[in-house]
Amino acid sequence: MKIAIASDHAATDLKAELRDWLTEEGHDVADLGPERGESVDYPDYGYKLAAAVADGTAERGIALCGSGIGISIAANRNPAVRCALVSEPLSAALSREHNDANCIAMGARLTGIEMAKACVTAFLTTEFAGANDPESRHQRRANKLSDPQ
């Protein structure tokens, strides 16, 4: 799977660990930065990640910052993105199953590497419940997330 990953300065170490692990697992990972822990603005990287998912460059996205909150808000400004802030595997799985999330966000100051890996695994392996039924309640609701009219 083609996965984009981005962070702010607070999450560069977690990003690097997840990038390397995902690559070892056979995924094609686009690291959208930053490379170092010098102060950056998380919205810039949230927008960059959202653009990669929205234009199809990546199938899924992983957004990381200190808490996961700011970068998830930034990513969600793009109407084609449904980024869920997750902290454990159940929320990651439900974000896919019920909401067809195409990105997850996590906080590097709140989530250790093993829990982050468990969240990513759940996110990548859970199917959307409405995938085979365009008339399902899950699909109807996911559609409204991208088009609130």
TrEMBL record:
<protein>
    <submittedName>
        <fullName>Ribose 5-phosphate isomerase B</fullName>
        <ecNumber>5.3.1.6</ecNumber>
    </submittedName>
</protein>
<dbReference type="InterPro" id="IPR036569">
    <property type="entry name" value="RpiB_LacA_LacB_sf"/>
</dbReference>
<feature type="binding site">
    <location>
        <position position="109"/>
    </location>
    <ligand>
        <name>D-ribulose 5-phosphate</name>
    </ligand>
</feature>
<feature type="binding site">
    <location>
        <position position="141"/>
    </location>
    <ligand>
        <name>D-ribulose 5-phosphate</name>
    </ligand>
</feature>
<dbReference type="GO" id="GO:0005975">
    <property type="term" value="P:carbohydrate metabolic process"/>
</dbReference>
<feature type="binding site">
    <location>
        <begin position="66"/>
        <end position="70"/>
    </location>
    <ligand>
        <name>D-ribulose 5-phosphate</name>
    </ligand>
</feature>
<feature type="active site" description="Proton donor">
    <location>
        <position position="98"/>
    </location>
</feature>
<dbReference type="GO" id="GO:0004751">
    <property type="term" value="F:ribose-5-phosphate isomerase activity"/>
</dbReference>
<feature type="binding site">
    <location>
        <position position="137"/>
    </location>
    <ligand>
        <name>D-ribulose 5-phosphate</name>
    </ligand>
</feature>
<feature type="binding site">
    <location>
        <begin position="8"/>
        <end position="9"/>
    </location>
    <ligand>
        <name>D-ribulose 5-phosphate</name>
    </ligand>
</feature>
<dbReference type="InterPro" id="IPR003500">
    <property type="entry name" value="RpiB_LacA_LacB"/>
</dbReference>
<comment type="similarity">
    <text>Belongs to the LacAB/RpiB family.</text>
</comment>
<feature type="active site" description="Proton acceptor">
    <location>
        <position position="65"/>
    </location>
</feature>
<dbReference type="InterPro" id="IPR004785">
    <property type="entry name" value="RpiB"/>
</dbReference>
<keyword id="KW-0413">Isomerase</keyword>
<dbReference type="Pfam" id="PF02502">
    <property type="entry name" value="LacAB_rpiB"/>
</dbReference>
<feature type="binding site">
    <location>
        <position position="99"/>
    </location>
    <ligand>
        <name>D-ribulose 5-phosphate</name>
    </ligand>
</feature>
